[in-house]
Specification:
mainly alpha; two-stranded antiparallel ribbon; 64% helix; globular
């Protein structure tokens, strides 16, 4: 026996995949660690810690904080409390939270690879891509990272891991699912779809009719019951916290305002215009072409057609359309000059992947129902997030990406087994095996290039090349380090550093004169609340030119009426100074509700409120 073959035979079965997972994991950890200090990002990141801050100040959820994404930020309370107690301030808290998320993400990497280890190298690659892309715009515990990681955990436990789960295990899985629903409340829709599927299977089973597909592993009544028990237990505990903290006191007054605002509109909760813009951004022709490929593959699956030529053609066409969608969006993103056009690509880049993912399952001779269930679950979850957020088809597309890789790995394994089973003649067998290998190699390379390019681009845009640069419309280097405040130790551009330092001077002026009274910030700049550490005189740190809503908040909550208001000169989203007309309109609108004294600060107007105007 050849020495190399002998060594290979005695080498552990998972040696190469374990080594690949370790190398990729170390690379990801080091990469995130080294880039964590770069960019101050936009408004979102600091907002995740304003909810813990105001809760620790004694404010109540729902009644005092009018945002639907607030529940998940309970997870940030222990870390926020620990940091502020140890340091005595919020200086540098954003970088600390980023490092903490990297630690959590690393632990999740180990857990996920353990679940996918049996897939060997595809499992290692899937784990790397998921954990590498899940941070998106910020390294933080947020509604889209928690919801996606929670759902991925549920899928890994119930669909990927084929081991039978114990009752306590199912209850824990249900608790994890509850955390995902807390992060994105409209995921209750996905839970409802699951319940309906379980109910339909139970009814058909009672009538001794088989279910229309082989999904018994996730539609078992007992399994669903214990998962539901875990979900309900978390929900009961959460409701207990809300009740005892007084979060339902005066709820009838708050309810009309809770589901309104800049991001939530009860009268038009599903924004089809937003979806239409995303589709046009990625090329309507390519999206339509990919959708037609998906429909064609579904028809082939239903008719049980075995025409390999047609299947291969549809598969390749779908892959080409998916790549063209992504390329079209990437080109538009590179040339983008404003936030909206840039963010359409950044938040919706999952559209091509979510449309492409089911195609391979429909065209496979024996589609793996477990992966198909995960794929459909990711699509449903993406739609749920689309209903209530600007972050549309990005995070849950990472779940679909895992399905594509694992599903195709299974397909190649199936093709290999079929080739080995049929050996009519040595020459025919050799030719057939060579053709099958060539076909799989070509498609594997195409999928790998598409997925890796998509992934590398998103990582580069989101972490290495931060959102600051395209928003500024310049190539300013991230050469300036912030030396104080919540963003301390972060590196940014020189122009943003000047804005930030000027803002801190104004905030210190307010801090010294407010004497612990409530303060309102009229812009989406949550880091200011973190620095002030004073009572909130607003319905949320996420404030977008909603003076009328703010006035109603003061009427409902007199204890939160502002003693000082700060109006920055600049638009926090673009980090650009507003023109005089915009500033005068903002002041005019504000003074139709209040009376006060204006002082011009370094980077904004400092307004001492003397009284609210009656019947404004």
């Amino acid at each position: 026996m050849d020495r190399s073959n002998a060594q290979k035979k005695h080498m552990p079965e998972y040696f190469f995949s374990d080594a690949a997972a370790a190398v990729l994991g170390i690379f990801l950890f080091v990469f995130l660690l080294l880039t964590a200090r770069y960019t101050v990002g936009i408004a979102d990141e600091a907002f995740y810690y304003t909810v813990p801050q105001r809760l620790l100040q004694g404010d109540r959820m729902i009644i005092d904080e009018w945002s639907l994404s607030q529940f998940v930020y309970l997870l940030n309370v222990p870390a926020f409390l620990l940091y502020t107690r140890l340091t005595g301030s919020t200086d540098g808290i954003i970088l600390f939270m980023r490092y903490l998320f990297i630690a959590v993400n690393t632990c999740y990497y180990i857990f996920m690879y353990k679940k996918l280890r049996r897939f060997k190298l595809p499992g290692a690659v899937s784990t790397f891509l998921f954990c590498g892309l899940i941070p998106q715009t910020a390294l933080s515990v947020s509604y889209f990272t928690v919801s996606t990681m929670s759902l991925m955990t549920v899928f890994l436990e119930l669909a990927v891991d084929e081991k039978k789960k114990s009752r306590p295990g199912l209850i824990i899985i249900g608790a994890i699912l509850a955390v995902g629903i807390m992060a994105e409340p409209l995921l209750i829709i996905a839970f409802g779809v699951w319940f309906i599927a379980v109910l339909i299977r139970a009814v058909r089973e009672k009538k001794k009719k088989p279910f229309f597909c082989n999904y018994s592993f996730i539609l078992e009544k007992k399994m669903f019951f214990y998962v539901t028990v875990g979900t309900v237990l978390v929900f009961v505990c959460f409701m207990g916290i809300l009740i005892f903290s007084g979060s339902f006191t005066g709820l009838t007054d708050v309810l009309p305002f809770l589901f309104t605002g800049s991001e939530y509109n009860a009268s038009n909760i599903i924004d089809f215009g937003k979806l239409a813009k995303a589709v046009s951004y990625f090329g309507a022709v390519f999206i339509i072409g990919q959708t037609l490929c998906l429909i064609a593959s579904a028809v082939i699956y239903i008719k049980k057609s075995n025409n390999k030529t047609v299947k291969n053609l549809i598969f390749i066409l779908s892959l080409v359309f998916a790549a063209l969608c992504f390329i079209h969006g990437a080109i538009k993103s590179i040339s983008a000059t404003g936030l909206d056009s840039y963010m359409y690509f950044y938040q919706d880049h999952g559209i091509p992947l979510l449309l492409f993912a089911p195609v391979q399952f429909f065209l496979s001779k024996k589609p793996n129902p477990r992966f198909f269930a995960i794929c459909i679950g990711s699509i449903i979850c993406s739609l749920c997030i689309d209903i209530s957020s600007y972050v549309i088809f990005s995070s849950c597309a990472r779940i679909a990406e895992v399905c594509v890789i694992l599903g195709f790995a299974e397909h190649i394994k199936e093709s290999k087994n079929n080739s080995d089973a049929k050996k009519p003649t040595r020459a025919l067998y050799r030719d057939k095996k060579l053709t099958e290998k060539l076909r799989n190699a070509v498609i594997s390379v195409c999928i790998a290039v598409f997925l890796l390019w998509d992934s590398a681009y998103i990582i580069a845009e989101g972490i290495y090349k931060p959102p600051e640069i395209p928003l500024l419309g310049s190539k300013e280097p991230l050469s300036s380090e912030l030396t104080s405040g919540p963003l301390k130790y972060l590196r940014t551009t020189e122009s943003i550093q000047k804005m930030y330092n000027g803002t801190l001077i104004d905030l210190e002026t307010i801090k010294q004169t407010a004497n612990g009274a409530p303060v309102a910030i009229l812009n989406v700049v949550p880091f200011m609340y973190l620095h002030l550490d004073l009572p909130y005189a607003t319905f949320s740190a996420w404030y977008e030119n909603e003076t009328d809503r703010l006035y109603r908040y003061w009427q409902i909550n007199p204890a939160h009426q502002a003693s000082y208001i700060y109006l920055p000169y600049y638009d926090c989203r673009y980090y650009q100074i507003n023109d005089n007309r915009t500033l005068s309109i903002q002041l005019e609108q504000l003074f139709s509700y209040i009376e006060g004294e204006i002082t011009q600060g370094e980077m904004g107007y400092i307004i001492r409120v003397t009284r609210l105007l009656p019947d404004a």
